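Table S2 (text version). Query chain:
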Amino acid sequence: MDRYALIAAGAACLGVWRYRTGTDDGLPAGPAWAVMALARVLRRLDPAAPRPPASAAEPLLTELLNRFDDARSFDLYATPIGR
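Corresponding structure-token output:
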């Protein structure tokens, strides 16, 4: 059951990235979040799988810090939130 749920999560990531809508800028448009999410799923399925390079996390960390500073959500859509 756990394996099936992880495979479904990976498929969902690919589906969100592949069929994204709206503008072609921001986090959903780029592959960085999908690569890191899929790498995490793969490592859960196979602990011996290679890790993504540390540099792959840099754009996501920068985006996360910018969203924190601007009071935006940490989901794919950066919805403004109240402070």
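Notes on Table S2: The chain is about 55% helix and 0% strand. The first helix runs from residue 2 to 18.
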